[in-house]
Amino acid sequence: MKTLFAFTKKEFFEVRRTGKLLIIMLLFLIFGIMNPATAKIMPVIMDMLAESMTESGVVIKDIEVNAMTSWAQFFKNISTILIIFILLFSDVFTKEYKTGTLQLVLTKGLARHKVVIAKTLSILSFWTIGYIFSFSVTYGYNEYFWDNSIMNNLFSSVVLWWLFGVCVISLIIFFSSFLQNNIAVLLSTGGVIILMYLLNVISKLKPYIPVKLININPLLASTEEIDAYTKAIIVTIIFSIVCIASSIPILNKRQF
Amino acid sequence: MLTIKNLKKSFGSKEVLCGLNLSIPKNSIFGFVGKNGAGKTTTMKIILGLIKADSGTLYVMDKEVVFGQPNINRYIGYLPDVPEFYPYMTAKEYLKFCGEISGMDKKDVSARSNELLELVGLANEHSRIKGFSRGMKQRLGIAQALLNRPKLLICDEPTSALDPIGRKEILDILVTLKKQTTVLFSTHILSDVERICTDVAFLNNGKIAIQGTVTELQNKRDSNEFIIETERKEDLNNLIGAFNNLNLTDKNSLIFNGTEHEFFSFINYIADKKISVQKIERIEPTLESLFIEVTT
């Protein structure tokens, strides 16, 4: 336990010392501010475009901006943020393999499963903290400018998106346990996500596929309720646990 | 301290170790010598549990080494050929981290770190490791390897990438460790072995070609080679004409290589012809000549 704590502490220290922490927090802050800001300037942009659009036959009438506009931005942009986050953390294992830093740590008797647990804990923590930070910033501005209470199933939708992020992180951990470089890890993870989208076409499977979690428009529009997501939530949780757990025996067999 | 029996390891179709047997006595500085690619690093990594052997058994302090079970590593310190550390840490922070993951007591880590940084000459180095030279990293490598007072210290070619001063520093440190720990030290620099090692083994084609104490091995090969220098240069040509087991070196001296009986008649000839000799000296057997003999 003591050694697990020590290695986890090192993971957090690394993110702070290497400046990654600053990048993540700035990223999530900018993202948090960008959503209400885009909603706020949308009428101004539309006004500017109105004239030229009228000439081409499109008539823009008064645009109503509310909390919904800002939250729509939030759910539209979060995928980009998740991609940047994953890019930043895709080399947590592979960098240590390449430089040989992990090799030296293992010769000191640190059990390999502790490496997986420590790295998983640290990435999940940063994803969660950053995500809550962004959400709070957007929520605060939205409350100030408009009214968050008009939203349906806002918290459920936010949690579903967070869970999808956890699923992608578990894929990164899984592929890192046996692949040698982070490009391969990223491509494999991307491959699995594409596969999920392909399987999503089959209507019988649709309720079970993790990508269901990020299709939150029906939930926001109240055409579907959270019950419709239960199967996908259970599948995603099991899938993530299996990915992380199976990377332990794989790393145990890895030769350094 | 360490016993290896019939160790085998292949990478793909390439057999790197084919039945290696090795025994390392306690408190020795053991030179593990072999050409590049002979399997020195592979053997060391198997001892450390970093790679899995295909077959064979290993015992460290009478405890069997099992791949994937790192408990034995508590007794072992490891210095890789090119040690790599977390570049964002300082030397002291790195040692603190090593102490924590080895499960050492906090106070002990602090005291031991100071002592070791002093030993390796990094006590006043407060900058981050990313700015360290290769020699500094090697010295920090020794400090981290010794932190938990290992019973066995494994060094993988610790001197081969260093300049002469860096090399001397590392060798001097290793010599001072003799009383505290057993050192297994792989190298292809034979002068380093002659300088600090008590025991030596030559690895060739995945097996131990020869093993023993350094003095034993040096004496194993009776040298019948003599170096002869005469006062007058023309005598050298005279001698070459008379004996066919003489070779002229580029330094105006001769190398005699023959049996004892032949050597006596050679001496007689010199006495008969009254050739003034400046020097006759038996060439000391070296590990190098033995190494070349067993590995070629």
Could you say which structural class the secondary elements and strand pairing of chain B correspond to? alpha/beta
Biggest interface: A-B, 27 and 29 residues
Give the overall shape of chain B, derived from the CA principal axes.
elongated
Task: Calculate the terminal CA-CA distance of chain A, rounded to whole Å.
Answer: 24 Å
What share of residues of chain B is helical? 25-40%
The oligomeric status of these chains comes to heterodimer
Based on DSSP secondary structure assignment, what is the total number of beta strands of chain B?
Answer: 14
How much is the radius of gyration of chain B in Å? 24 Å
**Main sheet of chain B?**
6 strands, mixed
Count helical runs of chain B.
Answer: 10
Strand content of chain B: 25-35%
Please tell me what the overall shape of chain A is: elongated
The overall average pLDDT of chain B, rounded, is 88
Q: Percentage of helical residues of chain A?
A: over 70%
| Domains of chain A (count) | 1
Give the CATH architecture of the largest domain in chain B.
3-Layer(aba) Sandwich
Uncertain residue ranges of chain B: none
Descriptive keywords:
heterodimer; A: 256 residues; mainly alpha; 10 helices; 74% helix; B: 296 residues; alpha/beta; Rossmann fold; Alpha-Beta Plaits; 4-stranded antiparallel beta sheet; 14 strands
In words, what does this structure look like?
- The complex is a heterodimer of chains A (256) and B (296).
- Chain A is an all-alpha fold.
- Helices cover 74% and strands 0% of the residues of chain A.
- Chain A has one domain (2-253).
- Chain B has 296 residues and is an alpha/beta fold.
- Chain B has two domains: 2-220, Rossmann fold (3-Layer(aba) Sandwich); 225-295, Alpha-Beta Plaits.
- Chain B has helices at residues 40-47, 91-101, 106-119, 134-146, 164-176, 190-196, 214-220, 233-242, 260-272, 287-295, and strands at 2-11, 14-24, 29-34, 55-60, 63-64, 76-79, 152-156, 182-187, 199-204, 207-213, 225-230, 246-248, 254-257, 277-282.
- In chain B, the strands form three sheets. In chain B, strands 6-7-8-3-9-10 form a six-stranded mixed beta sheet, with helices on both faces.
- In chain B, strand 4 (55-60) and strand 5 form a beta hairpin.
- The longest helix of chain B has 14 residues, at 106-119.
- The relative contact order of chain B is 0.14.
- The model of chain B has no long low-confidence stretch (mean pLDDT 88).
